[in-house]
Design a protein that fits this description.
CATH superfamily of the largest domain: Flagellar transcriptional activator FlhD
CATH class of the largest domain: Mainly Alpha
Number of strands: 0
Distance between the termini: 38 Å
Order of helices and strands: HHHHHH
Main location: cytoplasm
Family: Belongs to the FlhD family.
Organism: Ideonella azotifigens
Shape: flat
Number of helices: 6
Radius of gyration: 16 Å
Helix content: over 70%
Structural class: mainly alpha
Subunit structure: Homodimer; disulfide-linked. Forms a heterohexamer composed of two FlhC and four FlhD subunits. Each FlhC binds a FlhD dimer, forming a heterotrimer, and a hexamer assembles by dimerization of two heterotrimers.
Strand content: under 5%
Number of domains: 2
Subcellular location: Cytoplasm
CATH architecture of the largest domain: Orthogonal Bundle
Largest sheet: none
Length: 107
Amino acid sequence: MDTNQILAEIREANLSYLMLAQSLIRSDREQALFRLGVSEETANLISALTPAQMMKIATGNTLLCRFRMDDDLVWGLLTSHGKSASNDSVSRLHASILMAGRHQEAA
């Protein structure tokens, strides 16, 4: 993949993320804050963006979204390959609980 292709994909991912974030914030703010892992102030800014502003922001060369799972425990729970379906559900629930606690700590 060349640099131009990478930049085009970053722009596409950024625009998709901004559109999804704005839609989530406008439809269910509390859920959006949790799911996106953003502050109330950030949610206010994203909610107020015009389409032109979203396009301008999306054209940067840096991804706007990032992985929130920044430790081995959460990654291990989310990627528990070879586990039964019931264990997989429990692992995902456990990971969600851990991330929710971290969201509360950050708020």
